[in-house]
Amino acid sequence: MEIEKYITQAEKIFLGGGTFKDDRNERLDFIKNLETCDLLAVPGSGKTTALIAKLYCIAQNMPFEDGSGILVLAHTNNAVDEIEKKLKKHCPQLFEYPNFVGTIQSFVNKYLAIPNYVSHYKQKPITFDVERYEHQVNNFYLNIKNPNLKNWLDKKMYPIKFLIDLRFDKDYNLIKRLNSCKEDFELKDQSKPTYLGLKSFKEKMIKNGYLHFDDGYFLANKYLLKFETIKLILQKRFKYIFIDEMQDLEEYQINIIDDIFFTNDSKTVIQRIGDKNQSIYNIVKENCDWETRQEFDAQKYKNLSFQNSLRLNSNLANLVDKFVLERPSGYKVVGKFSGSELKPHLIIINRETTGKQIKKRFIELIKNHNLHHCEKNVKNGFKIISWNTLWNKEEENIDKKTNLKKLRLIDYYEYYEKESINRKDDHKFLKDYLNHYDKEKKTLESIRKSILNSFTRILDLEDIRDDREKRYRKSTLMQFIKNQSEEYYNDFKAKLYSWCFRIVVYEQNDEVYTEIASFIKGKDFIGLNWQNLENYHPKIISKSNQFIISSDFQLKEQKKEVSKEKEDIQIDLSSVHAVKGQTHCATMYIETAYQRPTYDTQKIIKSKGKNKSNPLLLEEHKCNGTYDKQALKMMYVGFSRPTHLLCFVVLEENVMDCLDSLCHTKGGIWEIDKELI
């Protein structure tokens, strides 16, 4: 395969005429490499761009003589969208048969879980969706007929969560969560009514088509056990596999890919790309599940590494490197960004300091360094982030040891978790279906599908099924409407067209929402003669009422707009999880409270004992506790976002023991800022 001859073209397209060459030529080495390997890449090293360039070069060699294709996998839809956005117009063949670009979940569902389900149940599953799954679990719990099971569950602190976490192993034994084992399950006697009741519940959930994402892996593994040839077929189908953001994969996801493709006879080339120190997806793990190939066979497999960060200057890289938790051979964060040599700022506050003062100081620093007058800087943005943002109802926000209030982002600012606006079929409320649809589509197709999905969701919530006792889909709903009468069918289509047109063209979302809500609740819809409903007369909406009337989407958006108007420099608020993978011009990281030791700095500063360590002072850091390691990873990710300015906001009381050293260390990396105390 010819790769090198296309690299210059890739540089013109993806680097705007720049080059992949540098002092280590690490990106070029990766692009040209076509052997099974793992790539360990530091933050801002351009790993995804290098992967995209590599895929472009491979695409120029397509179709392959043996008819095979490539498989490109990522953990999130956002990562897949980024690859597709940059690549599709230059090499559309990568997104056609025999290739596949998608998430691990979508690959498992498409090629393994759904074929197995259809083969066994002779129908397609309704959905792989956590929210809808949880709704069905809640319905089951409220209507349990088995008294033994009901009494047993009621003794639990969180019975619904227990039911949500329930899974099957490959032999249909109940287990709690994927990858656990039957020996760890608390009910040992499988002949007892309680165990049988739980097993029956889980079996019915799967049979009725309500599947948790985890069930996809259960069904996939069963399929692989049932048909061994599936592995051979997939190995021949995909000649090369590339997995981005490898550190975010769970053990069971890693195992299923290896089980299919990483066998003794397999000729598939697998390249896995990521950064173990950024494994903070969903939860912050002490240790990444990803074991690199070299860790178990150093003679056969050679790891590649990107050490040069094109995002971080030397000062920031030197700081971030001290927060490395897992340091395999060849892993070091080296700053190569030359657009700034600003030192990171350690901003000291006390308990009287307000969020308004913190934000004002951030804006002052941005202006002092003239960061807001560059179009690229403004595009990258200025963000205030923290590890912990909101308080859960179960959490205690008063420190019993000190009797002081513990602080999170919500205690400084009127903060809302941003709603997911990914293009998906299911949303929390009716109004969200009208706001969250694929706006890139040039036709009314996307909003039409979204509105019809909201109708089927309401029927599902009301437990209304079609004449075959199945959940209504868009097609069966339209067929039911057509069966009412030609006049009713044409009238409904006219309404649907009007709603779609007014949302897309005139943005009359509120007016359309009011009309749809009224139509749904009226006799012309819920009053129709729905099938197979003994002793049920759907004259009024009941179970889906909350779904129809609730939505705080626009309220949040309006509040965001008001805050925008008041600021000459837009400062966004976010969690560290949400900004992972992003590049900012300036980032302000505010330490917050979580478990003990309570605050971020308290977790990483060891002021007692022989193993004294403190990465704030750039000493070698050794941490043993779970929360220490989690804090280290969060700060590694948060501190590595900005190109120009990093501000770390800490409570004075938490750094008193090392503040003097920080202030007087010759050539210290921190700029100490005491303006707010």
UniProtKB/TrEMBL annotation:
Residues binding ATP, per UniProt: A41, V42, P43, G44, S45, G46, K47, T48
Domain of life, per lineage: Bacteria
Domain UvrD-like helicase ATP-binding: 20-319
Protein's name according to its UniProt entry: DNA 3'-5' helicase II
Short name of any one Pfam family annotated for the protein: UvrD-helicase
GO molecular function: 3'-5' DNA helicase activity; ATP binding; DNA binding; hydrolase activity
GO biological process, one term: recombinational repair
Alphabetized UniProt keyword annotations: ATP-binding, DNA-binding, Helicase, Hydrolase, Nucleotide-binding
Organism of derivation: Chryseobacterium indoltheticum
